[in-house]
Task: structure prediction
Amino acid sequence: MLPAAEPRAITRRRTAPGSEALVATLGHEPQVVTITLDLLLADRRPVRQLTVVHTSSEAVLAGLRSIREEVASGRYEGVRLRSVPVRGPDGPLEDFRTESDVRGLLAALYRAVRDAKRAHPVVHLSLAGGRKVMGVAAMVVAQLLFGPDDRAWHLLSEGWRPGAERRMHLAPGDTAYLVPVPVLRWTDSGVMLAALAELDDPLEAIRRYEEIVRGERMRRRREFVERWLTPAEREVARLACQGLDNAGIARRLGRSQRTVANQLSQVYAKLADWLGFTGPPPGRALLLAELAPYFEVLGPSKAAVGSVHQVEGGIRTHAGPQGSG
Result:
């Protein structure tokens, strides 16, 4: 069922405030696109642009012509139609047979959604039309570019089945639902979304996002090590991340195993607090997963000296006091 969310009145370029866009994948059943649009308009969603992403097989192009006829008939007053053919290295694609074909699909969907978001505060994405791979690729794009008000939809019909007959709209007695599909968005940061939307290649956007996330994770790990742990706890955490057991850590630092165990227990408790755990404190496995990448980047020569501090232009170290053993 449709959510009862009010569209935000955000002014974007070239369109009136509050206008929304529908991006739909198209297969052999153009009804999927028009019925989705019908249901959104019936729910008083101010859709002013319909973007259809499609392959170029004869059957799909025939369906696209049917959609154009519906828009040209005046049924959808104020709605502009834009068609986006999926292209591969050798031109328009009729189907998806290779990895490069799927990349072409991802690029077409990415640009269609990106352009719609540049012009409209809310974007709807229909996942029901075309090959299954089109829906999968559309969800990847939604994860990259969607904001909190954007929606992905699946069309569920009762009393009518695609392929039964060519009807562009529901007839009396037919029932259909737009079911919202949850999108696990990769970021809530408006700055990051804007940066990704400036890129033209979705694969480059994915790489850029992964770089940003890795950098953010390292920043947070550095903050935990430097601000949450004492110098003695940093030492035992570093050696634990190198694979030493308690006895090995005790020998290396000249401390008792009991002291090492107590210090590791404090590290685990602080790690649980830092991560927001509410159950029992995590153990060594999670410590390795979270902090081993941080100490590995520093290298043994830097990490062995003592605590680590960020300075302008890089990282420096200084010898920190060790706990008693």
Summary: The chain has a mean pLDDT of 81. The beta strands are 20-26, 47-54, 80-85, 87-88, 91-92, 122-126, 151-158, 175-181, 307-311, 314-318. The chain is about 45% helix and 15% strand.
